UniProtKB/TrEMBL annotation:
InterPro entries: CofD, CofD-like_dom_sf. Coiled coil: none annotated. One of its GO terms (molecular function) is LPPG:FO 2-phospho-L-lactate transferase activity. PANTHER family: MATERNAL EFFECT EMBRYO ARREST 18. This is Gluconeogenesis factor.
Amino acid sequence: MAAHFHCSSNPRPSQPSLLVFSGGTAFNGVVEELKKLTVRVAHVLPVSDDGGSTAEIVRVLGGPAVGDIRSRCLRLADESTSEALAVRRLLGHRLPINPQQAKSEWYKILEGEHSLWEGVSKPYRETIRAFLAYFQNEILRRPNESFCFSNGSIGNFFFAGARIFFQSLDAAIFLFSRVSDIPAESLVLPVISTNDRLTLGCELWDGTIIRGQNEISHPTNIIGPVDKGRSSVPALPSRIKRVFYMSSEGTNSLHEVFPTVNQAVLDQLSNVDCIVYAMGSLFTSLCPSLVLLGIGEIISSRSCPKVLLLNGSHDRETSGFSASSFVTAITDALNRTYGNSHNCLRNLVSE
């Protein structure tokens, strides 16, 4: 890929620009290596996750899911100084699984008495604490909802506090990027810029409708982290036909909604040197970004390299899939083949 860019007849900056469609976990391991090639990367992430720590924030405070965005921001964060490492350690910390222990540790962090604050200078400390306190205040304003801090992510709490304070997901990302000292050329873009809760649904080939990303990908009652690739969850009764967005009240495909794609994503797609479909949960991490109106139109118009990074193993969503099955699922999502006939495209796989 690097050779392709260096041989291009058009003069370019020394570093190639990429746009990566991914979720918040699987591609994280590549981020560190990718930094060695280029920091000019736009990371496009879904905001429909409804599992783990994110689920509790969405349940009590509403809004889009911030877990995948927080995860990627931390991977991009500066590590060159001891303070940068201290900030990354703090915002990457998870509370204990035990609810009482989690709540106790949360209050120690909130009050600035936890050892995680060591190495964080006063300006950074007061900035971070202010938004953690704002998050806590928002919880207290909802006395009818008991918030469970079990396995909670401090970074998620900070992010949620900033989003509610600014009433802007983009502003929260900007603040997080500055606090974490992410390179200005590295963009973390929610595929939908919204303050509303988003619900993902899927339709199986047998007609079954499943509501919620967690229910599609790895249904479990476990509070702690889940191994999506190896967790013992029941197989889907049929393969996934398509994913779509549902209204917060709807329970079937008649309640399908069509959120507007983030304009910044379309702008980046129009100009980057390469588009990457990263490894991860095919239908719940990649396709939620690809099915939005406008994405398939721009990608099919671009002649730049388009790269698919295949998964190393199957999961609940892709049992029995071949490499060509992944390609077909991605192109079907971009063409919106099985959605509303008025929104379908008919681009060739090669496009």
